[in-house]
Amino acid sequence: MELSRSARWGAVAVAVASFFVTAAAPAPAPGAPGIGDPYFPELGNGGFDARHYALDIAYDPDTDRLDGRTTLTARATQNLSSFDLDLQGLDVTRVQVDGRRAAFTRDGDELRVTPRDFLRKGRDFRVAVTYGGVPEPLSGPIVFGSEYGWMKTPDGVFVACEPNAASTWFPSSDHPSDKATYDIRIKAPRGLTGVSNGRLVSTYDKGGSTYTHWRESRPMASYLATATIGKFDVRTGRTPGGTPIYVAIDPVLADSNSVDVYAVTAAATDYWSELFGPYPFEETGAIVDDMPEAGFSLEVQSKPAYSAVRSETTIVHELAHQWFGDSVSVAHWKDIWLNEGFATYAQWLWSEHQGTRTAHDSFLAGYDSRPAGNAFWQTLPGDPQRDTMFASAVYQRGAMTLQVLRERIGDDAFFRLLPAWTKLHRYGNADTADFVRLAEKVSGQRLGDLFDTWLFTPGKPAL
């Protein structure tokens, strides 16, 4: 069949247009090795958006060896010639992209992957990494001088990774701005239980091993993932408000808890659901493990992990994080007061709810006990710096900021603001400027002076 003259010219026009579109498309380039967070410039990765992690791990407490295969489904955000994943230590033996072997190199904590063909912008792809070794916990001044990450216990491992230790046990885009859903499968010696995020899909024994499969179907920051393994007494049920609950407690601690972890978890989950908006995840709960060397607890998504610290105030703090920190996560680590100031203020609200002390009195107790010359007032909660991002001022002065805000705009506006914040940024990320804008919108007031004084100005603010 011969084309008419007009049809031939049309075909030529289409070909020319196609040529120029192709020519204008950016050439494939490597993804950035980090997102440029001011505190952790190399955390996270550029060039793609993490969508889903399938983690398959096998752990032997006798040798402390971890063998794993991580399959990450991601979407290219540029034409990618190569891309990075964060991975600290551990030996990589094989990398595949969409089922085909891919070249890889290591540079410090970066795993650079070069697929056989470049990945076009907008395309979904899968990278599977097979790896193994003995994970090492991190240490230093950041987390109260404590070790954190993958921490060996007498019968297994306690896994709590804030802010940058998820990549000590699985390759990831290890920054809270790159959330994804998760399937986590854990193989451990028979008799031990692997506890992770979301809901339990299955558990069974085979040979000398116990297998557990957990699914977190809501977006999650990598530092909130856990694969805590050990002997646990497990209690399940529902809170009075109907939320499924899973509490795992190391039997060694059965008689040492000063609080009923299950009851407080249920009560706090329901109360925060009234105050902060609907509970954002499929399950609530707790992991209570025998790990006194970890001088902290962590708001692990759906099941906070408690070590040596497991008081009622700690439980309500970590559960408040399910809204402030887990569902609404920081855009950059300098905004950490949005997590810790809010969870600390939740402790004050809990005391108010219990009728023991008003939030105003909690504010005054902290304010009056610290003279103007105290170093506490020199830490800026709105930008505390990396090594002091968990300083007490981030928690306490952050909470004071919220009380001052509450007294400025009134209870009606304040208690409309909190659920409006968690709804607006549900499963996403936000920063301080976002919160200021919303507070001004809800209250109808200009509030820049308040936040500048309490978050970004050194010295004890005048009342």
From TrEMBL:
<keyword id="KW-0862">Zinc</keyword>
<keyword id="KW-0479">Metal-binding</keyword>
<keyword id="KW-0031">Aminopeptidase</keyword>
<keyword id="KW-0378">Hydrolase</keyword>
<keyword id="KW-0645">Protease</keyword>
<dbReference type="InterPro" id="IPR027268">
    <property type="entry name" value="Peptidase_M4/M1_CTD_sf"/>
</dbReference>
<dbReference type="InterPro" id="IPR050344">
    <property type="entry name" value="Peptidase_M1_aminopeptidases"/>
</dbReference>
<feature type="domain" description="Peptidase M1 membrane alanine aminopeptidase">
    <location>
        <begin position="308"/>
        <end position="454"/>
    </location>
</feature>
<feature type="domain" description="Aminopeptidase N-like N-terminal">
    <location>
        <begin position="51"/>
        <end position="224"/>
    </location>
</feature>
<dbReference type="Pfam" id="PF01433">
    <property type="entry name" value="Peptidase_M1"/>
</dbReference>
<dbReference type="InterPro" id="IPR045357">
    <property type="entry name" value="Aminopeptidase_N-like_N"/>
</dbReference>
<keyword id="KW-0732">Signal</keyword>
<comment type="similarity">
    <text>Belongs to the peptidase M1 family.</text>
</comment>
<dbReference type="GO" id="GO:0016285">
    <property type="term" value="F:alanyl aminopeptidase activity"/>
</dbReference>
<feature type="signal peptide">
    <location>
        <begin position="1"/>
        <end position="23"/>
    </location>
</feature>
<keyword id="KW-0482">Metalloprotease</keyword>
<dbReference type="GO" id="GO:0046872">
    <property type="term" value="F:metal ion binding"/>
</dbReference>
<dbReference type="InterPro" id="IPR001930">
    <property type="entry name" value="Peptidase_M1"/>
</dbReference>
<dbReference type="GO" id="GO:0008237">
    <property type="term" value="F:metallopeptidase activity"/>
</dbReference>
<dbReference type="InterPro" id="IPR042097">
    <property type="entry name" value="Aminopeptidase_N-like_N_sf"/>
</dbReference>
<dbReference type="Pfam" id="PF17900">
    <property type="entry name" value="Peptidase_M1_N"/>
</dbReference>
<protein>
    <recommendedName>
        <fullName>Aminopeptidase N</fullName>
        <ecNumber>3.4.11.2</ecNumber>
    </recommendedName>
</protein>
<dbReference type="GO" id="GO:0006508">
    <property type="term" value="P:proteolysis"/>
</dbReference>
<dbReference type="InterPro" id="IPR014782">
    <property type="entry name" value="Peptidase_M1_dom"/>
</dbReference>
